[in-house]
Design goal:
Blueprint: E1 3-5, E2 26-28, E3 33-35, E4 55-57, H1 67-75, E5 107-113, H2 114-117, E6 129-133, E7 144-151, E8 156-164, E9 167-170, E10 178-182, E11 185-193, H3 200-206, E12 215-216, H4 219-231, H5 241-251, H6 268-278, H7 289-293, E13 302-305, H8 309-312, E14 324-327, H9 329-335, H10 344-358
Parallel strand pairs: 5-7
Antiparallel strand pairs: 1-4, 2-3, 5-12, 6-10, 7-8, 8-11, 9-10, 13-14
Helix pairs in contact: 4-5
């Protein structure tokens, strides 16, 4: 992995970073963004664009956010790619109380026993969603809470929707000890009866018949719940069907990949020496950042290893003149668009032949 999106992104989700990424390696979760470790090319273009300073080189990731390395690897495989800027969810986390976001990227079940509670679930469009329990709740902060209600004999179970756990705390003067709440949510106009679905019995068993409080949902059942949401009409009259279908087509291509990856360190000194020798123009297309955007942008050029570090796989010496070449982000992305990577002479021939066709 090269860079990691960490906890300061949670509930801010600024997307300025995605507009400068040359390889489209950002993926959008419910409450934060994630970087795909095998697609990031270590260009660092996104780092200064992040208002809450949530993007870190893996080697510089604060110890308290070490879990976000694996979380980025896992969630980037299960979230849709994002390439355009969107409005943020909230202000940068700087200045707000920092909380340990243990549940980010995870899914949980909140079970509402209608008879025991004495009322049916009723969610108005302006309501903040909340759930009261005597079970532990710290582990769900940042997670997606799916709301299931049960009532009657024989028991009928209905899925009402979900909300993001943005706040957890203790209750006073209540028969319940804890609460979890959040304003970001999606609830269905008509709750979906779960009893007759072929996977529901196994789901109930995995959740110990909803007797253990806010329990994590494994990925197999998350897919079933999201499929229900994809065809359900929400409280504001919208259907997620088109959006969910597009997202599914984005993140289901290719074979599953292991989330554990190896990172090979680059030398900043070697890059500097390479650019001193060859200049800041792209070796392939001759694009020059300083000529187009001004001298402040000349550092935006990348350097390409003629022999990829991932093929060498050991610590070794390099010669900045013979082993490296300056390339623009676009050409760098094309060089790495296949495995094994394109040779720089091979791609140069393709570039020149394409130019001749246009003449």
């Amino acid at each position: 992995m090269t860079h990691v999106v960490a906890e300061p992104c949670f509930n801010c989700k600024y997307t300025d970073c995605v507009t400068v990424c040359p390889v489209e390696c950002f993926y959008e979760g419910e409450a934060m963004l994630f970087i795909h470790p095998e697609e990031c090319i270590d260009c660092e273009a996104c780092v200064p664009e992040c208002p809450p300073a949530a993007i870190f080189h893996e080697d510089n990731l604060p110890a308290e956010w070490a879990d976000y390395t694996a979380l980025n690897a896992e969630m980037s495989l299960n979230c849709p790619v994002i390439t355009e800027r969107k409005d943020p969810m909230g202000p940068p986390i700087e200045g707000r109380e920092r909380l340990e976001i243990r549940g980010a990227g995870k899914h949980f079940i909140a079970y509402h026993n209608t008879e025991k509670m004495g009322y049916e679930i009723g969610i108005k469009q302006s309501d903040e969603c909340s759930f009261m329990t005597n079970k532990p709740i710290d582990h769900v902060l940042g997670g997606k809470i799916w709301y299931v209600a049960g009532m009657g004999q024989p028991r009928e179970y209905k899925l009402h929707g979900w909300f993001i756990a943005e706040e957890v705390g203790e209750l006073e003067n209540s028969s319940f000890a804890n609460y979890v709440a959040g304003a970001k949510r999606s609830f269905f106009q008509d709750p979906v009866v779960l009893n007759e679905l072929p996977w529901f019995a196994a789901f109930m068993k995995s959740q110990s018949n909803f007797s253990l409080g806010l329990q994590p949902i494994n990925s197999e059942f998350v897919k079933h719940l999201e499929k229900i949401e994809s065809v359900a009409i929400t409280e504001d009259g919208d259907t997620h069907q088109k959006t969910r279908k597009a997202a599914k087509e984005t993140f289901t291509e290719g074979d599953p990949r292991d989330a554990s990856v190896t990172r090979y360190l680059r030398s900043a000194a070697a890059k500097k020496r390479c650019l001193e020798h060859y200049g800041n123009k792209c070796w392939l297309c001759h694009f020059d950042f300083s000529e187009t955007f001004g001298p402040d942008f000349e550092i935006s050029v990348h350097v390409h290893h003629l022999k990829p570090l991932s093929e060498v796989r050991v610590k070794h010496q390099i010669d900045p003149i013979t082993d490296l070449r300056p390339v623009c982000p676009n050409c760098h992305a094309v060089l790495h668009s296949r495995k094994p990577v394109y040779g720089i002479e091979e791609l140069q021939q393709l570039h020149n032949s394409q130019k001749k066709r246009k003449q």
